[in-house]
Amino acid sequence: MDVMGDKATLFETGRFVQSPGEGATRDEMGETGDTAEDARLRLAARTGDTEAMSVLGAMLLRGGDLDGAEPHLRAATAAGDRAAANNLGVLLHQRGYAEEAAGWWRIAAVAGSAAAAHALGRHHRERGDEPAAEYWLRQSAEQGHALGAYALADLLEHRGDAAAGDWMRAAAERGHREAAYRLARALDRKAGAEEEGGSDNAVEETEQWYRQAAARGHRRAALHLGAILEKRGDLKEAGRWYLTSAKDGEARAACALGFLLRDAGDTESAAVWWLRAAQDGDGNAANALGALHAERGETQTAERWYRAALDAGDDNGAYNLGLLCAEQGRTAQAEQWYRRAAYAGHREAANALAILLLQGDDPAGAEPWFSKAAEAGSVDAAFNLGILHAGRGTGEDADVALRWYERAAAAGHTEAALQVGMARLREGDEQGAERHLRCAAGGGNPEAAYRLATLLDARRPPEPAHELGEVVHEKTECEEWYERAATQGHRRAQVRVGMLAAARGDVVEAARWYRAAAEAGSRNGAFNLGLLLAREGSEPEAAVWWTRAADAGHGRAALRLALVYARRGELAEGQRWADRAVALGPAEVSERAGRLRDALREELSA
After folding, report:
1. What predicted TM-score, i.e. pTM, was given to this entire model?
2. 528-537 — which CB contacts under 8 Å span 24+ positions?
3. Is the C-alpha dihedral spanning 410, 411, 417, 420 positive or negative?
4. pLDDT tens-digit profile of 489-501?
5. Confidence of residue 29 (pLDDT cuts 50, 70, 90)
């Protein structure tokens, strides 16, 4: 058949109907006319107007009237209309006559129809003839057809051809939303594989393609765009894209929107979206609902949602069920759920199972689970392995413990960093100790802050003197660390801060810190507070604090009490406290207390 017509003119008529695949572009679909236009076309078609027959056939085909469309399309095709040949192929394909459809597509494609070449390429790919498919898809793509470019990219990507990316980009640039999404995903994966997460330009380009696909209604693109914006801190816009995606049925977006609302303090709205996502099979949302009900004390409802998460394939459900049972004292059931999650590769469940076994006096059973969790990346498990080995007391185990502590410390575990710092101090490695203590102290560990302060304190030169003989005091770094530890309730740090304040002559500040330490159980704090009060003339109150310190085993406090009672003439009570001071020591105190005791004994026997 001889197909006639000028290529440009035929494209402008808009008489191409969607071929199988994603929706065709507007210029391929044409415009639906009103009743008057329909009547005009029918009249023109009856008079043999080829263009009218082609357009009318396309309109009827779009409307689903295959019987009405076929005669018009066949007549227009016989008259050499390329668009009608393509649309006739579409009609026959819909009726199940694939081979006959392919014949008409071939005719239209040879005549220059990009849409027909795309349809023909898809036809050959469905039949496994990839060389023919590539040929016709390339013909379509090279004419600027977005669907053809996307289908060619998909074919080449399947074969591992490097040119796939270029054609995917070409399709995306021509407005194909799935191509834009897949291009963004490829860029995202590439950035994720790079150490620094990709350059700023790459991240910006990825976001651009997600945005283009999302703007065209691609719900997964909207989800990923929301995630990028949330990570960047643009929470309001992220929420809008999550909402768009969730309304289009994307369960993960509904779940993410729930977390965004939860973080904003709107728990009720968050629960609505989690419920929607969980009902669509999102395990993460089901876990979130379970946690929400658990916080409210609704344990039965929480358990139901955790089970729903597990049924959805989310192993966190089993782990959360284990936590729920453990909180209720149902240890056997907790172990069962932890084991289920741990065997599925859940590292925190493996760590929790190991802790449970350790609490049940089964260290041999706990160790392999700690190891499994630690090797899977659990920082807590690495730290726990360190504790386990350190507790065995052998030199070899101490070395193994240190290696696990170092591993946990490198991942930011503050307690582990403290242990490494203390080990370095024992080895005499002050620089290594300081580095790890700084990490732990900076992470909020009060013991590390105190030990770092003592390390810096030992290096501190004597206070410089003013030219008139007055001590010039400026707060040093070690004092700042003492204060940080003291503020966090560290008793020895509180005593030290009190001593530094007393050295500055700030009695009120010194008393405040001594009292805080003493009330928390520090015998040194109680003793020093007593000294401060005695110097201020409040010996009766000082005696109260010295009594507390002496009862806790402070020898000097006992000696002070012995002296107080001796001065008051209460010799028996003085002798009793002198005996206590002798027993408590240290040697210097014992010696002085012994002399006092002997003197009091002589006085009493006189």
Report:
1. 0.73
2. 528/495, 528/498, 528/499, 528/502, 529/498, 530/557, 530/560, 531/560, 532/502, 532/507, 534/560, 536/507
3. negative
4. 999 999 999 999 9
5. very low
